[in-house]
Specification:
alpha/beta; 8-stranded mixed beta sheet; 3-stranded antiparallel beta sheet; 10 helices; about 15% strand
């Protein structure tokens, strides 16, 4: 990873049209819908984001997460339930290295659940892979919608990054899944210098099946708990936060995911690469939205290998 004090950031804003709708590459959104060429069918975003339909075995996968996470907490050297704020979910669990040379960065895992579900305790084993490569891994929780809004979650995760820097004085390698992929990109897009922190505090990350453009969620049932309007969706879309020049991002998605999840990763890689970020697209063949994170628990997986290299 680049020196925490040296990496510079350049913010490039998305253009807007006269109606205030932001223009994302070749796509324009108004009122939460993608404008389509004449004769083309509208995209069914409810289906594109329906994980229970896309992954029929999701309940069994979740049960496996719970079992594997509990087993890892029992066996791994760790410090549990460390607070970083006053909210009910603002805690993290710290998992210490089990092998390898001590890494120069601290790793941060952020879970998914559409910002309204799940808990860090389901994902303790997501630290196993990096622990074997010398990384201390923070598996964090965050307060959930509808009790809070997405902007609050983004701010809480930024506060966590500040807390980790103040406590451990190491730059942060962030990785997250789904909503956690969104939060990973939001951390990379943060202007840390404006917060009087090292500009490269969080300059590398892996966003797995991430959501970087929130506007398509507006007219779906996912938004019932999020309660976003278009202005809020745009403000909290990493695509519209500006391009963090000099950062490194791997955007990974599963080969069996919906077209929209694939598009989201392709778009952020395309846009950020044009602005000077080192962004790489990665497809995990045969993986769906839930199974894609399984290799994070395997120290020998190529996913963990590439992630570990990001923090060096």
């Amino acid at each position: 990873m680049a020196d925490c004090e040296k990496t510079a950031h350049r913010k490039t804003r998305l253009p807007q049209n006269r109606e205030g709708a932001y223009i994302l590459l070749s796509q324009t959104f108004r009122n939460g819908r993608r404008e389509m060429a004449p004769g083309k069918a509208m995209i069914d975003y409810e289906a594109e984001f329906d994980i229970s339909a896309l992954v029929p075995e999701s309940a069994q996968i979740k049960a496996g997460w719970e079992r594997d996470a509990a087993a890892y907490r029992e066996s791994a050297p760790c410090e549990l339930d460390r607070p970083y704020g006053p909210g009910p979910h603002l805690f993290y669990d710290l998992f210490h290295p089990t092998g390898g040379t001590e890494a120069g960065s601290i790793a941060l895992f952020l879970h998914g659940g559409y910002w309204q579900a799940f808990d860090r305790k389901l994902f303790s084993h997501m630290a196993r892979g990096l622990n074997a490569h010398g990384y201390t891994v923070c598996v964090a929780g965050y307060d959930l919608c509808p009790e809070v809004r997405i902007g609050d979650i983004v701010n809480d995760v930024r506060s966590l990054a500040e807390h980790l820097w103040a406590t451990y004085r190491k730059p942060i390698l962030t990785y997250g899944h789904s909503a956690g992929g969104h939060l990973t990109a939001a951390l990379l897009a943060t202007d840390w210098r404006a917060r009087r922190l090292p500009p490269a505090l969080a300059a590398a990350g892996m966003a797995i099946s991430g959501l970087f453009d929130l506007v398509p969620l507006l007219d779906t049932s996912v938004n019932e708990a999020l309660r976003m309007d278009q202005k809020e969706a745009v403000a909290n879309s990493p695509i519209a936060m500006g391009i963090p020049y000099g950062t490194k991002l791997i955007a990974a998605y599963g080969g069996e995911e919906s077209n929209e999840f694939k598009r989201q990763s392709r778009v952020i890689v395309d846009f950020w690469t044009r602005g000077g970020s080192e962004a790489i697209l990665r497809e995990e063949a045969g993986a769906n939205h839930s199974s894609i994170i399984a290799p994070l628990a395997d120290p020998d997986s190529s996913l963990v290998h590439d992630l570990a290299q990001l923090g060096k």
